């Protein structure tokens, strides 16, 4: 099993190398050279299995011999043992033929835990074998950072530094990043916005001396290991509503396109997915792209679903790679166009290929709030704003295809965004009992100027050797 770059110029890598590398050296993203498939019988056999067993069956062909079967089962058990729900990704019914996939029962209450917990375990196991030590640096608008800290805290061989924009994350998100007691965790509040954090991260990866000196590694959403882990819940949920004996559609609240792209991989593997519906908030570049081939940056407007406030949707590059018949040169030239002019136009053939798999829709701010309130009234389910964007778009799509079951992904727990949820519904969602003391724990964080040299100095000084 080899992994190749979406821009066609970087060397192919093993699973372990691709997971440890993150971004390819030609600027592209790693994807499997060929996607392994499962037969209808193999998919049918997943019904009734535990989440952990399904995770093993779905991921094993991609990791090949990186771990023995026994090792891999153990890593999966450790990764999902800390979840607050025995089903890990339970499915609840919202309406006739419309289901909600609750992906917020992990330790930091967002779907990012599904991927981060298992790549934390896999990286640790690989490092223990090689005796190497790495420094993970991440930039976050909130959810990725807390999930990474939760996954890597206390692990040997890893230091984790998370940069978040000072004063611009929710209190729950901040406390999840600043209240862990382990010495290998370092929360950095950067005096800037999310784009500043992300550009400092890029600068660090491009400073090759620094990169080699601290053994820099990344866990942002372009990491192939993260996409792979997200494929699992498409299988577990689809078999619960009748796959492979009938088709299923999914609606996915989307920002960086990692979560929905995992659905595309599930389809390539043989899961009978009818439509993958992209749901965006008012930052609707992906919806405009699907509707009118208008992928043009207009500036991000902050919303009540902040984890989807994104314009350069990094994993969309992987979708474009398939839509261009895996032509790395074509993807590379689109990305150059975006960099130089802030927009690109997709060829008719590639656009038709995208439309074969994906639909799209959007929810503005008011619609999002109304959906939180109406869903609570109709089904008793309290949604976070991201999930509400999905539910609105899922319903709209289902009106055209009422006979195909629709599964909408709920990406975060409402208690992670209590202000927006309370404004919409009148109810302030409480934290689950297992983390009810979050507001009492003491915080540990370093405020840092938005300056590359200052950030690098802190990382050099704090990391263990
Ligand atoms: C990260 C995130 C998203 C967007 O996921 P992508 O994989 O970037 O498309 C949506 N909702 C929540 C709550 C998130 O944390």
From TrEMBL:
Pfam families: PALP (PF00291), THR4_C (PF24857), Thr_synth_N (PF14821)
Domain Threonine synthase N-terminal: 2-80
UniProt catalytic activity: O-phospho-L-homoserine + H2O = L-threonine + phosphate
Residue ranges of domain Tryptophan synthase beta chain-like PALP in the record: 86-331
Catalytic activity, EC: 4.2.3.1
UniProt keyword list: Amino-acid biosynthesis, Lyase, Pyridoxal phosphate, Threonine biosynthesis
A molecular function GO annotation: threonine synthase activity
Matches recorded under CDD domains: Thr-synth_2
Pathway assigned to this chain's UniProt record: Amino-acid biosynthesis; L-threonine biosynthesis; L-threonine from L-aspartate: step 5/5
SUPFAM superfamilies tied to this protein: Tryptophan synthase beta subunit-like PLP-dependent enzymes
Named cofactor requirement(s): pyridoxal 5'-phosphate
Matching NCBIfam families: thrC
Family: Belongs to the threonine synthase family.
Name this polypeptide is given: Threonine synthase
Organism field: Marivivens donghaensis
